[in-house]
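Title: [Solved] Mitochondrial glutathione transporter SLC25A39 3D structure

Original question kept below for reference.
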Amino acid sequence: MAENPSECPLGGITPMQQMLASGTGALFTSLFVTPLDVVKIRLQAQRTPFSKGKCFLYCNGLMDHLYVCQNGNSCTAWYKTPTRFTGTLDAFVKIIRYEGIRSLWSGLPPTLVMAVPATVIYFTGYDQLRDFLRARMDSQGRYIPLVAGAVARLGAVTVISPLELIRTKMQSRQLSYRELRVCIQLAVAQDGWLSLWRGWGPTVLRDVPFSALYWYNYELAKAWLCSWFHLQEATFMVSFAAGGISGMVAAVLTLPFDVVKTQRQIELGNMETLQVTASKSSTWLLMRRIRAESGTRGLFAGFLPRVIKVAPACAIMISTYEFGKAFFQKVNQERQLSSL
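Solution (posted by the thread starter after getting help):
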């Protein structure tokens, strides 16, 4: 991509256009991936109904969000209708037939309030850092995507982590905004400002290595596919394939951290809703405990569901993001030509 530092420092587009491209990609990803997780939750609830105060994770393809069951068997619209499912496909058909197609996106709007800004920060930050490092090092260094991906994810997690904790408090205790402010003030007075980042550690331990591996492999896979098909620039399908492959690799390699992060997130949710004391053990001690109880296989629990969820999400997100950037680049080029 041609680069004009004085006008469009990032491959011919402005940072604002880049934010629009990443925000659009985030919306498309959530629309495609959310139905898969809604069906998964409905099937889980059918096997083991959620009790009052029970926490469960909900993924919109961009972030994992903690949801709290408030009223026992009718705690969410996701399984208020007593429909029995025999499998995933059957669940899709019956939900659409008896509850309407909109039910496949149950719970999505509140999660987008945090997921879209987090994705915008993450993707824009990555491209900004990558191009900055390449300009400073005067190099196309192969490890630059690894560093830029890790730092960008660290920044996004740090910004969003307190907001996720606040959302969990509001949902679990059904607080008004005034009550929430008092609750936060008490928490800060008792445990300090760092208490707002409770759960930050396990999230960073999973997401930062994932992002570093993802971007490193994505840039490699994209370059290899372009070379294989003799392309000067990546097409939509090249970006889609490279994103899916790199997402799958990163998901598999960071799976033990995902298992730990999930347990920690559920613990923190129970602490808010059931007033249960969270475990004080470190992440490494928790990994050792899981390994002692379930063996090494315990650290790779949920291997197939995670790969099935992560790989398509990564493919959709990066391909729509790259498509958006290419669109804005073309618009900018046409404007520059018309102004001559």
